[in-house]
Amino acid sequence: MAHRFKSPEIWKLSRSFCLNIYELTSTFPDSEKFGLTNQLRRASFSVASNIAEGSSRKSNKDFNRFLEIAVGSMYEIETQLLIASDLGFIRQKELDMFLGKLDSIVKMTSKFKVSLSK
């Protein structure tokens, strides 16, 4: 059963989160252009993309697999944000805001995965 990828709220939130990551990383030092900036952008882009790609699969099991990949990317983002904070590229208040948004998307994705298993 194919799903409409634009319908799940997690896709909309992950797309918005990706834009936030692009805005954040535009303030990173130029020396990070091919390092942390690139990694964060690619990982955040991957979340919404995997939700969209998974929705095209014919079974919920396949869709679930793509959601798992999206969650993996979210944990990758969390690690990269913490490293960015360690390096002084993000203030604590920004870090907390980004981690809060990310946590919400992870939780929504987990709940959505459970609903697909029923």
Task: Quickly describe the structure.
This protein is mainly α and 118 residues long.
Describe what you observe in this structure.
It contains 4 helices and no strands. The chain has helices at 9-25, 36-55, 60-86, 92-117. The model has no long low-confidence stretch (mean pLDDT 90).
How would you summarize the topology of this molecule?
Blueprint: H1 9-25, H2 36-55, H3 60-86, H4 92-117
Helix pairs in contact: 1-2, 1-4, 2-3, 3-4
Termini separation: 14 Å
Mean of pLDDT: 90
The percentage of residues in β strands lies in under 5%
Spell the H/E element sequence: HHHH
* Poorly predicted residue ranges: none
Major β-sheet annotation: none
The overall strand count is 0
SS-based structural class?
mainly alpha
Shape: elongated
Rg: 15 Å
Q: What's the helix count?
A: 4
Overall helicity: over 70%
